[in-house]
Design goal:
This protein is 33% helix and 28% strand. With 251 residues, the protein is of the alpha+beta class. It has a single domain, classed as Phosphatase 2c, domain 1, CATH 3.60.40. Strands 1-10-9-6-7 form a five-stranded antiparallel β-sheet. The radius of gyration is 18 Å and the shape is globular.
Length: 251
């Protein structure tokens, strides 16, 4: 019996929040190519904005160029293509920062989703996150590349201690800050009705997973769900830029 092909819809909102003068987050997606990206930039002056925008553009460029039929013939698998796209993006940001002293040290987190029918790949560098809502339950797919999260995973810090730690903003991996970076790549199988959330930490620092889940369960169009999430994060403090990108799988 043939399996029904899934289609994907997307919506996104990005906001500078209530405390930051500019928005260093960036997002982009191509429904045609099945690529969705959220980045959270860092660096002095406008460097964070440059790093995040450059990362989105370069990842979209690299992953739009992929050819699904080549992998059907046993050639370049998607995890390798995603890793190569990350390497290219990292090099683009790092080399630009080396050429311009004003941009020295700039970098960005990145979380991305690549879909091909029911196959889904999630790529992550830093502490921007991917979640999946399925059958009313929210699951975090990515693992934060942050100092406190690594301490929690090793059992050296409790979750509540991590939330209070003055080091909670320290990330251990980012694009563009070094000449080499290693991403995490997760492979999943999508089901009709799955809702994927890609977001910067401006959302997850303000809202608990339980609250995010309850907001995503509202029977609203995706653009309104994005707005609800961003407005809730702003109401909770809005200390950082806030970006959320929703991707829904449907038959």
């Amino acid at each position: 019996m043939a399996t029904a092909v899934l289609t994907y819809m997307a919506s996104a909102v990005s906001d500078r929040g209530r405390k930051r003068p500019t928005n260093e987050d960036a997002f982009g997606f191509s429904l045609e190519s099945g690529v969705f990206i959220v980045c959270d930039g860092m660096g002095g002056a406008a460097a964070g904005e440059i790093a995040s925008s450059l990362a989105v553009d370069e990842m979209l460029r690299c992953l739009r160029a992929r050819h699904p039929s080549s992998r059907a013939a046993g050639e370049t698998p998607m995890p390798q293509l995603a890793e190569e796209a990350i390497f290219s993006t990292n090099e683009a940001i790092f080399s630009r920062s080396q050429r311009n002293l004003r941009l020295s040290g700039m970098g960005t987190t990145l979380v991305g989703l690549v879909v091909e029918e029911r196959r889904v790949w999630v790529v992550n560098v830093g502490d921007s996150r991917c979640y999946r809502l399925r059958a009313g339950h929210l699951e975090q797919i990515t693992q934060d590349h942050s100092l406190v999260e690594e301490q929690v995973r090793m059992g050296r810090m409790t979750r509540s201690e991590a939330l209070r730690s003055p080091l909670k903003n320290v990330i251990t991996r980012a694009l563009g800050t070094q000449n080499r970076v290693t991403p995490d790549i997760f492979e999943l199988e999508a089901e009709p009705g799955d809702l994927f959330l890609l977001c910067s930490d401006g959302l997850t620092r303000e809202l608990s997973d339980a609250l995010i889940e309850s907001l995503l369960l509202l029977d609203l169009p995706m653009d309104q769900l994005c707005a609800r999430l961003v407005n809730a994060a702003k109401k909770a403090g809005g200390h950082d830029n806030i970006t959320c990108l929703l991707v829904r799988a449907a038959q």
